[in-house]
Amino acid sequence: MQVAEYSSLIDSTIKRKVIEGTIPLIVRIPFKNEEKFTLYNASRNEYLPFLLKNSLTEFLQEVEQPISSVTYTVNEQNVKWYFPIGVIFDALHNGSLPMEITIGISQNQSTFQPYENEETIKNYHIQQLKESVYLRYGSIQTIRQLAVESITPLWECHAQNKLEEYEQLLNPILITGENWQNIPIHWYFGSQRRYTDCIPVIINDHLTTLIEGLQVFLKERDINDNDPPSLQLLKTNAFEQCPNLCIVIQGITIPLDTPLLWLALNLSHSDLFLHVVIRKTDELLIVI
To answer: Where is the Autophagy protein ATG5 UblB domain positioned along the sequence (predicted)?
Structure first.
């Protein structure tokens, strides 16, 4: 496909809604003398430790624990700090707004990607960005166009929710003369784990659809009893035979015949991954 063909698939109205998408949150922090509640209107692309940095500083001074011991709970399920807020909402919200997040402390600190400071988020986000571009093109040549000196302003735009400026900085690698080989995807079947994958843009001479991408993922995955229940269900049942499940991207339930390329161009997160949530159907979800 040529540059013009990729560009023709981009819907500027939808892109605008994705960039400006926010989620109302209420954060409960159990201080020793009283619980404190703080309201936020958070960007879907934001990370919890960065959003809550002022509240966390005060809380950690009281409990005398390192920030790496902080836990985040939604509907009694722990969530990872490095999951974008929009993904946490899509996977766990129960229909009530604002979504409530409870801060806690765990003595069993995570051995994977422990959070230490803002530099942790920055490095993680840039690493995700590079990984998604590599999976998309199958090489590191394109990511080299992202100059070292642009990394800091890129993160600053993201941290300040200046996502239009962020996207402009990424334009050299968003649409190029190089054909996409794959769609980089993070699949979610719950709050505890995600599955990183890359699905071919074209299968059998046509653009791969969402349901075809899911079928490829399931075919290649060795599913066992430790996997989430919804994933185990799909091991033995076609998605169409599971009416209580739906696929959510950026807060929207997506038709199964939607091309993955269109979804990636219009609904990817700021890390350029398509974050796909498989969850139980909720009447309050929006359908397009």
So the answer is: 182-278
